[in-house]
Design goal:
Layout lengths: L1 H19 L9 E13 L6 E16 L2 E14 L6 E13 L4 E14 L6 E12 L3 E12 L3 E15 L1
Antiparallel strand pairs: 1-2, 1-8, 2-3, 3-4, 4-5, 5-6, 6-7, 7-8
Amino acid sequence: MKKVILLFTLFVVGTTFAQNHEVNVTSENSWLKIGLNAGLPVGDIDSSASFALGLDLKGQYLVTPNFGIGLATGYNHLFGKDGAEDFGIIPAAAFARYYFKPKGLFIGADFGYGFLTNVDNNDGGLYVNPQIGYHNRDWNFYAYYQNTFAENDLDIQVLGIGATYNLRF
């Protein structure tokens, strides 16, 4: 059911955007974001994972000077503790960000599906990653709360910080 809701949401957002906006990709409104993040597992997973380290990869298009949308992926590695195995999350998500000014505070969220690696009997689940941070023309620094609502009532939550660098097309 979660996959159906996700696909429907992406379809509605995509068709609405395509019908109401002419896309003109330039180095001023589109870029690739590459970065790192680190965090601490919280909630249900903090007893079996000690630390999270990840790589972010995002493609962003500014719909307006203050509002950006895009696609996000990467890899988040969670280090096991007390004999638990390491595992990972590969997000496949859409994202939106609101920039209050050309330089300064932003808020945003990634929303999609998180594929789990090295976890038996669990492929993944709904992936949500709200963020708040500071940005300028080249960098984004942010705090995040990542939650993957995986199958079999496994809730993977990470609270952390990250930074991305903007590569212009």
